[in-house]
Amino acid sequence: MKLHFYKYQGAGNDFVMVDNRTTKIDHHNPLLIKTLCDRRFGVGGDGIMFLQNCEGYDFEMVYYNSDGQPSTMCGNGGRCIVAFAKHLGVIDTETNFLAVDGPHYAKISESGDWVSLQIINVDTINRDGDDYVINTGSPHYIQLADDLTHKDVFADGRSIRNNTTYLTKGINVNFVEPLDEGYFVRTYERGVEDETYACGTGVTAVALAMAHANQQTGNITTPIKVLGGNMSINFNYDGAKFTDIFLEGPAKRVFEGDIEVDLSTGYEAATQPA
Fold first, then answer.
1. Is 37 one of the catalytic residues?
2. Can you say whether residue 233 is alpha, beta or left, with left for phi > 0 and alpha for psi between -120 and 50 degrees?
3. Which residues are within 8 A (CB) of 171 and not within 5 positions of it... i.e. 6 or more apart?
4. Does position 272 have pLDDT exceeding 60, yes or no?
5. How confident is the model at residue 264 (pLDDT cuts 50, 70, 90)?
6. CA 19 – CA 5 distance, rounded (Å)
7. Residues 62, 99: Cα–Cα separation, whole Å
């Protein structure tokens, strides 16, 4: 069958988008997902999202990593699907939608390319030696680093992600370097099993961990630089719990097109620009 798709990116974190309100593709198909996300034989992306109808919400976000498996919450994916929903006319400038970790509220600019996404509250910060482990909808490991520009994030991130503590369930690994304002973050993502240009729940976890480490409280705004651009995390911290957490950054449509797929297997023919 011919599948119409859209390609979005949020600070370089890129995703295939499918409007599944009427198409109703059975997406429980790891090979199909893997081939659509393949950068050589498919559309290419860090993951894929299906926008679906959901009673009581504007829409439902169903997300898969590029390895073909369903995943936990994806922050940049959440921001991109909000931009996608605006493009489709499903929402205007505000939305309440359902994701794997529950309901999310988001706001989007009139231009449709800047999205502020509310992340779940966080009341637990764990330690692994000198490092931090936080769940912001997805599990994240946070380690301070020097000269992060030249760090081998792939090798070092893969080593932590696959150690005996995290091998079974996996974890996203974030390396952090303080800047004059905010932080520089690079992330190795499970499911992608590689470094990505940005990770939304990852930079959120970093901002929370650094506020905790520096004993900051109150309303806090943390600028974050990633390989794909700049983001901002706004939140409130009372010393015990993080609330009103918003992940903000760009979300842009790159292109759309059609691809022939065999739903019983996967990729069948090259993409054709719309």
1. no
2. beta
3. 133, 139, 140, 141, 160, 161, 190
4. no
5. confident
6. 8
7. 7
Distance CA 45, CA 14 (A): 5
Q: What is the mean pLDDT of the chain?
A: 94
Asked if the model's pLDDT at residue 44 lies above 60, the reply is yes
- C-alpha to C-alpha distances, 38 to 18, 43, 69, 103, 110, nearest whole angstrom: 16, 6, 14, 30, 32
Dihedral pair phi/psi, residue 185, rounded to 5°: -130, 135
pTM: 0.93
pLDDT for 99 beyond 60: yes
Residue 35: C-alpha distances to residues 29, 39, 77, 135, 145 (Å): 10, 8, 19, 29, 35
- Among the listed residues 37, 54, 80, 199, the single catalytic one is 199
- What is the rounded CA–CA span in Å between residue 237 and residue 257? 44
Residue 201 zone, left/alpha/beta (φ > 0; ψ -120 to 50; rest): alpha
Catalytic residue among 37, 54, 74, 80: 74
Three-state DSSP class for 261? Answer: strand
Residue given tokens 């999310």 in the structure block: 104
Q: What is the mean pLDDT of residues 133-140?
A: 97
How far is 47 from 37, CA to CA, in rounded Å? 6
Q: Which domains does the chain have, with CATH numbers?
A: 2-113+252-273 (3.10.310.10), 126-244 (3.10.310.10)
Which residue in 187, 237, 233, 184 sits closest to 212, CA to CA? 237
Q: What is the three-class DSSP state of 199?
A: coil
**pLDDT tens-digit readout, 187-219:** 999 999 999 999 999 999 999 999 999 999 999
Judge whether 251 and 200 are in contact, CB under 8 Å.
no
Based on the residue annotation, tell me whether 74 is a catalytic residue of this protein: yes
